[in-house]
């Protein structure tokens, strides 16, 4: 049974996290603070490369670096052959999208209004060239994507349903599994951007019903920047032809013909940082040891406390929507733009994020928002840090 973490457990984890001694970090949705053990795993492999040579060190440490794939599969209730290790969320998502192959005029892509701007840019470039369309699925009264509205939009021209599970501009959590049931029933490919979900929410890809799910190492997992996870359902893999390959993803056979790998690694590149894979493996192991259910319970409790405190402050508007909410807390301060709030708090040693329209253009535009300030919590976040953030905002308002 899941439960929030005890103060003693949090203190012990903070003692093994160097960054908490130099910053009050509320930008875990941008990139979280790695543990000392994750940093050491990276450093140890770099030392192997320096002493043995990078290629030789990679061969010697193959079992350790491949551990990231096995642990990622455990995290998502997938098989290791369904996991590709990428350089980040967008590279993984983009590689899978590009591998769908040519688009034709009239084909449709359906997205929730919260879709990440980078994904939209990728889809628009393709859709504009081919004459395909990108259409927004309506949201329900709570702000979440509406599965019933999606069902009413479907026809035989819909080639892809794309969902950003946890939007970058606030605490809303979309009903990913409900969308997945519709996609599976109609046999439509379903891509999930889980950049903010991986490591923060329990994820069972079979329950969610997606064909592709992309995640980042640097956010809730507390892994190194430059790492990501890409799940591709094994039965869906034959539908993906990589936009480019190399000797890792499609080695040449005796006749000189490329042979695509029969696992998700057909979307990987040989040009990968094995040192970062070592760090990612450690971060994954730490998250699994804590328990994602427990991480979720702790983040939910801290984020809810922060929301309630911010909502009680005159001049502060909490902007989060949805029914179930994540550890991303969005707000605005009257008379101050979000970028100014972020910069002013930084001078007090407090790190938050700030998003503009480009991050989630459909949602921001539909809600009349031009900027939001974003304080995102981790299971490392303490009540004392919440109090410091609140005090910092009060100082700005004075």
From TrEMBL:
InterPro entries from the UniProt entry: Aminotrans_V_dom, Aminotrans_V_PyrdxlP_BS, PyrdxlP-dep_Trfase, PyrdxlP-dep_Trfase_major, PyrdxlP-dep_Trfase_small
PROSITE patterns named among the record's database cross-references: AA_TRANSFER_CLASS_5 (PS00595)
Nucleotide-binding recorded as keyword: no
Domain of life of the source: Bacteria
Residues of the Aminotransferase class V domain: 36-389
Transferase is among the record's keywords: yes
A GO molecular-function annotation: transaminase activity
Keywords tagged on the record: Aminotransferase, Pyridoxal phosphate, Transferase
Pfam family, one: Aminotran_5
Cofactor(s) named in the record: pyridoxal 5'-phosphate
Recorded family membership: Belongs to the class-V pyridoxal-phosphate-dependent aminotransferase family.
Name of this chain's protein: Aminotransferase class V-fold PLP-dependent enzyme
Organism: Paraburkholderia podalyriae
């Amino acid at each position: 049974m899941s439960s929030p973490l005890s103060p003693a457990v949090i203190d012990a984890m903070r003692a093994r996290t160097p960054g908490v001694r130099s910053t009050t970090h509320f930008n875990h949705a941008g990139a979280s603070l790695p543990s000392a053990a994750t940093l050491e795993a990276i450093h140890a492999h770099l030392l192997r490369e320096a002493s043995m040579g990078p290629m030789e060190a990679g061969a010697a440490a193959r079992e350790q670096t491949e551990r990231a794939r096995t642990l990622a599969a455990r995290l998502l209730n997938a098989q290791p052959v369904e996991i590709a290790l990428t350089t980040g969320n967008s590279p993984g998502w983009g590689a899978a999208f590009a591998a769908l192959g040519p688009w034709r005029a009239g084909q449709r892509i359906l997205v929730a209004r919260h879709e990440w701007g980078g994904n939209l840019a990728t889809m628009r470039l393709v859709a504009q060239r081919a004459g395909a369309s990108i259409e927004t699925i309506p949201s329900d009264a709570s702000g979440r994507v509406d599965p019933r509205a999606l069902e009413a939009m479907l026809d035989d021209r819909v080639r892809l349903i794309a969902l950003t599970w946890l939007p970058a501009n606030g605490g809303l959590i979309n009903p990913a599994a409900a969308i997945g049931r519709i996609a599976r029933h109609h046999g439509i490919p379903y891509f999930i951007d889980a950049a903010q979900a991986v490591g923060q929410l329990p994820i069972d890809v079979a329950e969610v019903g997606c064909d592709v799910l992309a995640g980042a190492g640097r956010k809730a997992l507390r892994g190194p920047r430059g790492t990501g996870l890409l799940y591709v359902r094994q039965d869906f893999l034959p539908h993906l032809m990589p936009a480019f390959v190399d000797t890792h993803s499609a080695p040449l056979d005796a006749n000189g013909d490329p042979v695509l790998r029969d696992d998700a690694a057909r979307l990987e590149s040989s040009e990968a940082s094995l040192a970062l894979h070592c760090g990612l493996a450690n971060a994954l192991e730490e998250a699994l040891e804590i328990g994602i259910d427990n991480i979720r319970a702790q983040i939910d409790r801290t984020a809810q406390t922060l929301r309630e405190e911010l909502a009680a402050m005159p001049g502060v508007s909490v902007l989060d929507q949805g029914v179930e909410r994540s550890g991303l807390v969005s707000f605005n301060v009257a008379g101050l733009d979000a970028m100014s709030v972020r910069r002013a708090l930084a001078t007090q040693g407090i790190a938050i994020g700030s998003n503009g329209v480009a991050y989630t253009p459909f949602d921001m535009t539909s809600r009349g928002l031009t900027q939001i300030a974003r304080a995102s919590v981790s299971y490392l976040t303490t009540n004392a840090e919440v109090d410091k953030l609140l005090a910092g905002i009060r100082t700005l308002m004075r």
